[in-house]
Design brief:
alpha/beta, Aminopeptidase, about 450 residues, 11 helices, Immunoglobulin-like, globular
């Protein structure tokens, strides 16, 4: 027994000696393993920070980063190729030209008085590469937006930062073919600016030629149901002729004539300020048209078009407001006016899901009905029975983002031999102008009644 105990003690003594000798090596290996693990975690966090959703802090723009992807992967990225803006003291629209569809995230940073930083908005465009010739800040200084900064935030993220003077609201949406990301920012309206903008409308009658004796003065903005400014949008223009009718007549020319005549009539007889999105034969991008109306702080936006069909017998008048639809005819018409495919028009529906509450939808529907009824009844009195195609909803890009009641009027079919020839005549154009003005007056009257209830 004693011999067995002595053997056991000898074995344990050897074990403890071995541990004492090996312990420093174990410590070094453990320390090395822990160090490697820590470095791996840091690398993982760094990668996550560069590619994950930003939180409440804006990381600085980066440039001159090291390329980590091969050429094939880089070629799949969306190229950010252009930057444009249209602005006013309380509204600015920023437009970023993209090579293809992509995802983006938009965040707002509040003003920090302690640090002296203004409110900011930043947009991260994912899987993207910056392809602008200049990466210098774009100075805007319109009273709302100070400047636009854009840079390659990481290997596959382009970051756009909007340095604001003030900020009330913002919205963003993507338009396809060609793809462009549109960002609308709104500031707080200054009362003195509003008064200054209203002054020309109240003084407009005084600047006109002396009125014929017995002719009633033009109504004030108050008498017009609060309508002081309208933006008229003659569709198409420049490289985009629109529909081509009998004898080679182009839609862009007819609608411009009518818009000019309607503008004069609204100024002279209703004392309303009128702004045209184009005054001559020039191309205006669709997203610029509502941007003009927003920047002008207009009360109504009316886009004027002529219809077209492969069926030469198709005829009539119809008026549209912006909303989702599954109607195939409305989708085809919107695709033609948008210059896109019906698939792309359907893709716009997701944009409207979070914009509908911001739209003047009910007012747009009312305006559409007033214009449609007046156009049909007025032209029927002037030229005989007109086919009433009704008020409909469709996904017109030109109406997206409007902050006021907005509609699109299809004034007869330019492809119909009778209607196309008629609308080329000054007398028919004058009759349509009178009918449209009557529709605007009826809308104004309904507004006035609603205000007094």
């Amino acid at each position: 027994m004693n011999r067995r105990c002595r053997l056991s003690c000898f074995v344990w003594a050897l074990v403890w000696c071995g541990l004492a000798i090996a312990w420093p090596s174990f410590q070094n290996e453990a320390a090395l393993a822990q160090s490697q693990k820590s470095e791996a975690i840091k690398e993982s966090l760094a990668a996550t920070t560069a590619t994950s959703k930003p939180n409440d802090k804006e990381a600085p723009l980066r440039s001159g980063y090291e390329e980590t992807k091969d050429a094939a992967a880089a070629s799949d990225n969306t190229q950010v190729t252009g930057l444009r803006f249209l602005s006013s003291p309380d509204y600015t629209r920023i437009m970023l030209d993209l090579s293809q569809d992509t995802k983006y995230e938009i965040r707002q940073l509040k003003e920090d008085l302690a640090k002296g930083t203004p409110p900011r908005i930043y947009i991260d465009i994912t899987s993207a590469r910056l392809a602008l010739a200049s990466k210098e800040p774009v100075v805007v200084e319109d009273g709302l937006l100070k400047q636009i900064r854009i840079g390659q935030y990481s290997a596959d993220v382009v970051r756009v930062v909007l340095d604001m003077h003030s900020l009330r609201a913002h919205n963003a949406f993507l338009l396809p073919d060609p793809y462009r990301l549109v960002v609308d920012v709104q500031g707080h309206k200054a009362p003195e600016n509003r008064m200054a903008r209203e002054t020309p409308a109240r003084q407009a009658p005084a600047r006109r030629k002396p009125e014929v004796k017995g002719k009633a003065p033009a109504p004030s903005a108050a008498a017009n149901g609060g309508i002081r400014k309208i933006v008229l949008d003659p569709g198409h223009g420049g490289k985009d002729p629109g529909a081509i009718g009998i004898g080679g007549r182009a839609e862009k020319d007819l609608v411009l004539n009518i818009a000019k005549k309607l503008a004069v009539k609204l100024r002279n007889e209703m004392g309303i300020q009128v702004v045209l999105t184009r005054k001559d034969d020039r191309y205006v991008p669709l997203e610029n048209r509502t941007a003009i109306a927003n920047a002008e702080d207009a009360d109504l936006f009316i886009s004027l078009h002529m219809n077209a069909s492969v069926n030469s017998e198709a005829k009539g008048v119809e008026t549209y407001y912006l909303d989702n639809t599954t109607d195939e005819a409305a989708l085809r018409l919107a695709a033609r006016e948008n210059g896109r495919s019906t698939k792309n028009v359907s893709d716009l529906q997701f944009i409207l899901s979070d914009m509908t509450q911001n739209m003047k939808l009910e007012d747009s529907i009312t305006l559409a009905h007033r214009l449609q009824h007046s156009a049909v009844s007025g032209m029927t009195k002037a030229f005989g029975e007109v086919k009433d195609l009704g008020v409909k909803k469709a996904l017109f890009y030109v109406l997206v983002g409007a902050r006021m009641p907005s509609v699109l009027v299809e004034m007869f079919f330019i492809t119909n031999s009778i209607e196309g020839r008629s609308m080329a005549q000054p007398s028919a154009q004058d009759a349509m102008v009178e009918a449209l003005m009557q529709g605007i007056q009826k809308y104004a009257q309904s507004n006035l009644i609603a205000r007094t209830l």
